Fold this protein.
Amino acid sequence: MNQQTENKKNLLPTGKIKQYFIEVYEVARFITRFFKEIFLPPYEFKEIISQCYSIGYKSLALISVTGFITGIVFTAQSRPSLADFGATSWLPSLVGIAVIRALAPLITALIAAGKTGSSIGAELGSMKVTEQIDAMEVSGTNPFKFLVGSRIVATTLMIPALTMYNGLVAMFGSYLNVHANEMTSMKSFFQDAFSSISFLDIYASVAKGIVYGFTIGVTGCYKGYNTTQGTQGVGRAANSAVVISMFLIFIEEMIIVQIVNSIR
Amino acid sequence: MKKEPIRIEKNDVVISIDDLGKSFGSLQVLRSLSLQVYKGENMVLLGRSASGKSVLIKIIAGLMFSDKGSVKVLGREVGQLSTKELDVLRLKIGFSFQGSALYDSMTVRENLEFPLIRNKRHLTRHETDRAIEGVLQDVGLLETIDQWPSELSGGQKKRVGIARTLILRPEIMLYDEPTSGLDPVTSLEIINLINEVQKKYDTSSIIITHDLTCAKFTGERIAVLLNGTIGRLGSFDEVFDTDDPAIRGFYNYNFIKDS
Ligand SMILES: Nc1ncnc2c1ncn2[C@@H]1O[C@H](COP(=O)(O)OP(=O)(O)O)[C@@H](O)[C@H]1O
Ligand SMILES: [Mg+2]
């Protein structure tokens, strides 16, 4: 299974840089394998749905709370600077733009990286070290497709959905704060908020969700699926799944924002 | 305790290993290893920790690949099979993992169901339930059917793990240290189970162990893995009829002799 890796390690002198490129190569192979296998039958619909449930539905409470608080806090913090110019009526559009363009995608992705990424890393990692993955393989089930494929599909579908949901909850939190201070009606708040948001913003936000979801899924699965060295390795897998996916999410954020701004 | 003689067909070789070599980086684990397992027999594989016993049976099951040599299982060269062909072959191989490897997110019933519904999609619910109850009964654990793996004892986990492989009616069983970590009484139960499986399911097996009681009462033949290759091979008495300290060590430890 790891024959190719082993041979590679023989040929190359050890060293951090070489190791880094081997890792990049391995990740690329992992992703290629995902795309190759996911489109071939038998499809693991049942497992995909059960993963969507545990990744999406079970994060709803956390995403609601954080979205709500983000909305309130962001609004309350922005009010003084706008008030200086007598422009508190701009709050709904400011919040709309900030939430959809920046806050919702990032907050959702970072929370999911912490919650979902670590649990995928730990779960697959412990299945690996206790030979459950081998057991699946010898019983004629493709563990890559069953475990990895379903999880990556689920994160890629669920994170954009959670992002949209998080954005809506944040705007609702913001509305409550604005309503309490400026007596704005719900209708005019959301009209103002949405009038400032373009379709490009929404597409970009969904695209970010998809990219971040895929990143979280791949990182968690790759780290978990390649866990070595017993229970210690499981902890390491969970930990590095979170750290690496958070790091990648920020890099991707930067790139996507550049791209979107060049289109705008 | 004594094992009833079993019929072995010496001209029917189910596992044939020839000049097998396997290294991990600079660590050479197996070297020019040759071994044949006959139909119907329990072949015990003895060897020290980290001597490559698990690696050997993982190569047999296609979970790892050799660097060199040939491994034929039921006439098929394992290293040269396509993924599909390998899956077909694997259905005939039962693998009992050292740590049982039960899926801990599933109940005992779901653990047993998993290989069945994924490989025999035509079965009805009723047939599936009957098959699950049948194998659980064979390992004496019908009452645990709705329990979670975390609620089972070590010996029970081993049994359920064995049941999960039996449900596909394998022709070959590979047991990785089936009695390790178990108390003597439970070990004896597992030893009896291995022999019952051999008889009832007509399996040919490789049993990895350091436990000479297990070796003596399950194995028709014993192979000792020494320095990456089969150092000794024969019946229990033949294998231990030697002064070689590497072999005597096993014996003296298990049967408490001063060395
Ligand atoms: N996937 C692997 N990568 C690197 N080394 C391995 C791997 N699997 C086993 N080894 C090494 O091979 C040797 C034999 O392992 P194993 O067959 O598990 O021993 P045992 O005889 O105790 O079952 C050990 O030194 C182990 O560290
Ligand atoms: Mg072992």
Remarks:
- Chain B touches chain A at residues 23-25, 58, 61-65, 67, 83, 87-88, 90-91, 93, 95, 97-99, 101-105, 114-115, 118-119, 161, 164-165, 168 (CB under 8 Å).
- Residues B 24, 29, 47, 49-55 surround adenosine-5'-diphosphate (ligand 1) (CB under 6 Å).
